[in-house]
Amino acid sequence: SVHNVSIGREFLNCENSLAALEELILDGFSLNRIEANAFLQLTSLVRLILSNDRIEHLDRDAFVGLANLKGLYLYANSIQEFGGQFPFENLPGLEKLCLSNNRVTSESLMSGNGGLFRNLNKLKSLSLSKNRISKLESGLFESVIDLVELDLSSNEIESLEHETAFKGLARLEKLDLSKNCLLYTSPSPRDRGNHL
Question: What are phi and psi of 188, to 5 degrees?
């Protein structure tokens, strides 16, 4: 059994032999870290699946060079925090991001200025199910204005602020909040006025 494996540029150092690769699946590799520039040679990559790998840490520049990436699947890992870094900011064309079944917390989502999803203007589908999210901070989704699907199921969310939790998500068509501890949703200011 292999433990504490990192994936770096050397792992996929292919001297452009894989430059046309569009999909890469690394499932069950027991990786714990994705280092900076790990996929730099894979410029044609459209879909990257790093699932069931025990990943705990993503370097800030882990996905540099993946300008064509549309789908990133990081489900069933051990990602808990991002250390104030933004590993997805170099993926402006990303349309689908799956961070389900990790250890992501509310605090780690808002790390730094603008939150974890800044610069993901084309993101259409975001899955954060089966994590440890307890609240949704104001401004968290402001940069993902094209988001159509948001899965927040199976978390620890107890309350929501109507006006701020989903601010900027005018195109949202599907929202899954099932299997949370949702006890309270604050009324909008307009509703509060009706109760006075």
Answer: -70, 160
